[in-house]
Amino acid sequence: MRSFLMVCALFAIVTSRVSAQGADGKALYDEFCKKCHGVIGKPPATMQKKFEKIATFNAEFMAKHSVDSVVKVLSKGKNEDMKSFKEKMKPDELTAVAKYVHELAAKAKP
Ligand code: HEC
Q: Which among 6, 12, 25, 68 would be 20 to 30 A from 36, CA to CA?
């Protein structure tokens, strides 16, 4: 009986940690955004050539796009190139990715 309670307690700790941490913005970014927007938020040259208007995530970008506005772009999509990700991610995942984009922008060199 004691070991059963121990297992329950451990399980509770593990699951509460997962939900407290929430969705992993970096993992989602790497899966869905990196190929166009680049590892550190600077699109690779091939993508810059293909999409003239593709955003670089830097301080200037951050000043114009709040986390909320990025979530909005991700859920609604902007155009043919920057599509909606609503079907691919849950709302908390969209928020996690939007926050990660801001982290990248904060780290970017001016
Ligand atoms: C197929 C390539 C592609 C992928 C994949 C992609 N993007 Fe984009 N993204 C673009 C292009 C192109 C633009 C510029 C759109 C424009 O202004 O015409 C853009 C623009 C944006 C913008 C700026 C929107 C605005 O309001 O100007 C944000 C924020 C953004 N992307 C975030 C993301 C995130 C986060 C992901 C991953 C979930 C992602 N993108 C995946 C191509 C892509």
A: 68
Neighbours of 94 (CB within 10 A): 23
All domains of the chain in start order, with CATH: 22-107 (1.10.760.10)
Alpha-carbon Rg of the chain, whole angstroms? Answer: 18
Nearest residue by C-alpha to atom 8 in ligand 1: 82
Per residue in 56-89, pLDDT (tens digit) is: 999 999 999 999 999 999 999 999 999 999 999 9
55, exposed or middle or buried, with CB in 10 Å at 0-12, 13-18, 19+?
Answer: buried
CA atoms of 31 and 58, how far apart (whole Å): 20
Tokens of 36: 């166009």
CA of 10 to the centre of ligand 1 (A): 41
Report percent pLDDT > 70 for the chain.
Answer: 79
Of 102, 85, 105, 84, nearest in space to 42 by CA: 105
For residue 18, report the distance from its CA to the centre of ligand 1, in Å.
Answer: 28
